[in-house]
Amino acid sequence: MSEPKRCMQAVLAGFGGQGILFAGKIIANAGLLEDRELSWLPSYGPEMRGGTANCSVCLSDDPIGSPLVLNPDVLVVMNQPSLDKFEHSVQPGGLVIVDSTLVPRIPDMPGVTVCAVPATALAEEAGLKGLANVILVGKLFAETRFCSEETIRAAVAAVVPARKKDKLAGNLRALELGIQA
Amino acid sequence: MSQEKVLMKGNEAMAEAAIRAGCRFFFGYPITPQTEVAAYMAKRMPKEGGTYLQAESEIAAINMVYGASSAGARVMTSSSSPGVSLKGEGVSYMAGADLPGVIVNVQRGGPGLGGIQPSQSDYWQATRAMGHGDFQVLVFAPSTVQEMADLAYLAFEKADEYRMPAMILSDGMLGQMMEPVVLPERVEQLPEKPWATTGHKGERKHNIVDSLYLTADELERLNIERFERYETVKAREQRAETFMCEDAEIVLVSFGATARIAHSAVVRARAEGIKAGLLRPITLWPFPVDAIEGCMGCAKAFLSVEMNMGQMVDDVRLAVNGRVPVEFFGRTGGIIPTPDEVLDAIRKLAGKGGE
To answer: What is the pTM (predicted TM-score) of this model?
Structure first.
């Protein structure tokens, strides 16, 4: 395990409805809970309406300049078009996490760590349909330790809306699955 | 004072701050990328005993603002670029009637229907010609979600203080992004408005709120008086933030979302040994000419960085008044400039200076 990641410029991308923005919010809330600088910027407009969704999330110890991440050091993708679109923008030494259930082509990227996690299949097997996004956040956490273990769980709890508290246990199980994946 | 940080979208933080500033009337009409302001107000206003109303059009909304303001209320409307154009007539009427009120523009690319991605191409409109006639509006330019809240709060205060409309000139990026924000405390006491049309009950002379003056002498006198007030505003209300400007030879001038990118570019230019700095206007009207003056000692050139084809650069040139070159770099149509591009523009300017 390398050093915990204090600064991160992440892009999360996939289809609308996969919970891409939700996954980004977990990371953002982890930053908030640890009182770090952070930004969360969703795609909006024609892209979203065309069925794809992505968001930029920055964590830092210093104030954040542009919240729009052009060269991520972390890329999480949940479909093939998103991988095609963003893989060449990843910084050298970066990390790419792919939902291999949904992305047929797992890239071979020199100098970049690629983690293929069959998140959608794992979620379905565990009866956690729709929580592949949280599994991928779990994997991202396990790979980078971008916050403390206590924080990541609290961040998931913070993002699950109050009126859906019955979903919290499932979300935490999905997180755990991702951490173990 | 509660210092609790919460994570909110810029549009939502601005709306919540308005409520805490005592805004109890919101009139709007949906348009991307400002819709969250209206959505938030729709949810919150009834709980505050306030009024949220989705008008039949932007024009109707601004005229409702005129009405509520005439009656002394703190009132707000919000829209994005094309919708703000529609409000122009009403804002002019408010200025002509000396009515306070807050108008939010979460800018998107133009002209025309344009696009829905972030832009700053309504700078001229906000600072020069928000409507017909001789008038100005206060223009605040937030650069973070925190400032979306703080400046919305301040805008209500200043609009009341000077009896003039105030605008929050934001953009799609600031509106949509989330950052931690400490929300302002609720306002405790609202200022007296002896001019408001609240019913005189036979106890005082009745108040009239109007912008129609058919006697030329009277209209000229009112305009001259209003411009004397504008001089006070210019003297007291300029706001700007400077970063590494003390010894800066190349001073970037940039506001709102673009200033964040310019800030990153300045840090990188410094790392290359270029003496760059950033002057960030927080008020666009009044334009912070005093802050520009403060940079004149060392500045060899200014670089205005904007998300448009070059608008604020006019005000920088007016302030610099030919003493040193003023250049421009921008992207438009909804494209957000990158720190790399801005850094390149700085390097070019540094090269030109003849090291």
So the answer is: 0.96
